[in-house]
Amino acid sequence: MSDQDIEQRIARDIARWQRGVQEKGEPLVMDEGWLQTPPGLRLPFSVLKSAGVPPREVELLAQRAALRERLDACSDTQQRARLERELSELEQHIAFRLEALQRLGRG
After folding, report:
1. Residue 92: which domain range?
2. Phi/psi of residue 52, each to 5°?
3. What are phi and psi of 75, to 5 degrees?
4. Burial of 42 (0-12, 13-18, 19+ CB in 10 A)
5. 75 in any annotated domain
6. Contact between 60 and 90 (Cβ < 8 Å)
């Protein structure tokens, strides 16, 4: 078999492979969240997302939103002060976690 025969066979196999691949799967869609995620965390977060398990930070942000709603609806001054303190502590905890994730993601 000559070099030219080998090149033709490789070209033919590549063309066949490309035709087969074009009909499979769906195109990859890059969302804004993927681009904002530090490169070192993209794979672990992608695995969690595929498994239907949201990162802990998503749950914390939902807790913060619920706490803000409770605070907006609260009229008791003592309870309001307690909710404000709880919200402040939660926001600080979220900030620390997000900062740690950024450091971890940079490697």
Report:
1. 55-107
2. 80, 20
3. -115, -15
4. middle
5. yes
6. yes
